[in-house]
Amino acid sequence: MKTYIEERAAEIANYMIENNATVRQAAKHFGISKSTVHKDVTERLQQVNPSLAAEVHKVILVNKNERHLRGGQATKEKYAHWQDK
After folding, report:
1. DSSP 3-state assignment of 33?
2. Cα–Cα distance between 22 and 53 in angstroms, integer?
3. Number of helices (H) and strands (E), helices first, in the chain?
4. What is the pLDDT of residues 12-65, one digit of tens each?
5. Which one has a higher pLDDT value, 14 or 71?
């Protein structure tokens, strides 16, 4: 694996851990696709730095378990303005 990919994977993982960021937020922050972020922090990082991969995996699991709540809140906010009219 190329060095810049390894560095990018570690940088993304550190960002996600420090900011408790979702894959989508990390992708937007780094200007890359969600698929790339996910592959970097799950597959590529595991080969380079397994302990960091384990830490970011915990963040991903928390976000995965909370995503239905975020989706419900987003829907609520989306339609809240309709009631104001």
Report:
1. coil
2. 15
3. 5, 0
4. 999 999 999 999 999 999 999 999 999 999 999 999 999 999 999 999 999 988
5. 14
CA dihedral sign, ordered 27, 28, 31, 32:
positive
Q: How far, in Å, CA of 53 to CA of 6, rounded?
A: 12
The structure's pTM equals 0.79
Phi-psi sector, 23: left (phi>0), alpha (psi -120 to 50), beta: alpha
Average pLDDT over residues 5-14: 96
Contacts of 79 (CB under 8 A, 6+ apart): none
Q: Which residues contact 66 (CB under 8 A, 6 or more apart)?
A: none
**Residue count of the chain:** 85
